[in-house]
């Protein structure tokens, strides 16, 4: 097992601008506590260091710099029962979302997942980029690492079948991995009618571009809300594999362009 040192989150909240390609400075923001997030679940914690093997064995050290989702057997029992009972309040308690909202977004982070883990990052709480243990997968699908998840709508005009990454860039479980996302929020006119769909300019995982200039016409499955909006939070799901696992993230930097 290898000890992994923490990194910091940097942030730039920007005034209204035009032109996606314009460069913006970043303002450092350490992950010192949970004040940048909204959550009711004790499974989300800030820690200073993590030691993990590839089978999921893990030790943590108190400190700052790493956002950890730590779920065990008891949590899985609770979530399984909540799912059967359609107890959304309990299920929602295992999610975490940012206390701030974003429009256009440049997001860069590192994440680690043990064997069998399954989660996701929802841009604006509506468009999911999959976090999944896809190590060794030869033909990745929309549910694999970096995939854009499908939705489960059945009405005409509401169906989105997701998008598989063009390559499997996943590292082995238990290793830190790197992701960079360039997201363009949907556009709306003065009456609130959507005039342009959300778009991913790119998603790069471990140095491999897995999406480029990808339009996302509808929210993906399990969104915070089906209604599309100019601004929304980043939502991260609880890990939901069948066996108790944990996962963690070391966000590096984000640049946000606020919209009118």
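Q: What amino acid sequence fits the structure above?
A:
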């Amino acid at each position: 097992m290898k000890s992994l040192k923490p990194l910091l989150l940097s942030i730039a909240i920007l005034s209204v601008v035009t032109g996606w390609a314009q460069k913006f400075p970043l303002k450092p923001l350490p992950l010192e506590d949970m004040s940048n997030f909204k959550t009711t679940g004790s499974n989300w914690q800030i820690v200073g260091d993590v030691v993990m093997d590839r089978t999921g064995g893990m030790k943590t050290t108190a400190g700052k710099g790493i956002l950890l989702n730590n779920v065990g057997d008891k949590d899985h029992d609770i979530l399984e029962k909540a799912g059967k009972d359609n107890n959304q309040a309990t299920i929602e308690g295992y999610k975490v979302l940012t206390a701030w909202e974003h429009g256009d977004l440049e997001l860069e982070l590192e994440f680690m997942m043990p064997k069998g883990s399954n989660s996701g990052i929802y841009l604006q709480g509506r468009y999911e980029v999959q976090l999944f243990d896809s190590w060794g997968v030869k033909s990745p699908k929309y549910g694999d690492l970096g995939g854009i998840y499908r939705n489960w709508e059945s009405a005409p005009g509401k169906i989105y079948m997701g998008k598989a990454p063009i390559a499997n860039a996943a590292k082995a479980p238990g290793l830190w991995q790197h992701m960079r996302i360039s997201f363009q929020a949907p556009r709306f006119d003065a009456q609130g009618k959507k005039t342009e769909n959300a778009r991913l300019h790119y998603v790069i995982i471990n140095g491999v571009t897995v999406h480029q200039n990808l339009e996302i016409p509808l929210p993906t499955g399990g969104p915070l809300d089906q209604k599309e909006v100019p601004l929304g939070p980043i939502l991260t799901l609880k890990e939901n594999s069948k066996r108790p696992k944990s996962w963690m993230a070391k966000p590096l930097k984000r640049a946000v362009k606020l919209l009118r």
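Q: And what stands out in the fold?
A: The first helix runs from residue 73 to 85.
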